[in-house]
Every structure is written in structure tokens, then in C-alpha cells.
Amino acid sequence: MNASQVVEQPFPAQSKIATGPIDGIPTEVSVLKFSDKILITLSQEGRLSQWIQVPLSAPSPAAVDMALANSNLLPLSHLTPKTLLGGGGEERESLAQLYAVQIASHIARRDSEENRTLVVGLGLKTLKPDREAFFDVLELIQKVL
Q1: Which H or E element spans position 31?
Q2: SS3 (DSSP) at 82
């Protein structure tokens, strides 16, 4: 990691926690902002079963400019998620990566200069392709960002 990717942050790392229901289950979301990473956890009943990382840096500034011009709900095209731990099958892994990329897109749209790596820890009891649950997750995440 080169020095240009490190963002000076006060010690201890900034953190924020919020709670709310997702699919009728009480859920806790937290964020920790380190100098080189942003860590977000989304947990139900104390579980964390999947970890995904998404580098927020783009291969070129032009890629970010083109992606930011399209400000709808689609994820930014330059973001590439990678599952670090956990999986739970192809469908669950794909859906978890979609959540992580959508969160990363929200962060990148809020601050186009952000180039830290996002690490998302998911511990949802059931991860299903349900529109209402998806928007509940995004709404809860926005409370801590």
C-alpha cells in the first residue's frame, strides 16, 4: 500500500452503531473507519458469517467520473467485490457481494475522493433476494455512514 492511499484518522478509529429491523429481525450495524479501510458489520443475533472486501479506488480517474455521472441505484461499474471468508453457496455469496458493492457505491458517490478499501461483515439470519429486505439493509447502513 502506498502512502497516497492512507487517510489520516484520529485515534481511536471513528465508530458508529445503529439498530433497526431487517426482515422483522432486530439488526445491529456498525462502522469503524481506519486510515486504510472502512469496516462495516451487519449482524443479527450476534452472528457474522460472510466477509467481503471492495476496493473503492478505481483503475483511472476517468472510470470514476463516468460511473459517478450515472447516479441511480445501480452499483458503480469499477467496484469489484471479493469474498474473504464465508460463502454459503453461490446464490448467498452473489447476494452478499451485491450488498457489499451497493454499500461501496453509496460511499463512493458521497465522496468521490474516497479510495480506502471497504470490508463488509454480514451476519443476516437469512439472506434472500427480497426487495424490501434489500432496501432495509441500505437504509440501516446509511444511518452509520
Answers
A1: strand 25-33
A2: strand
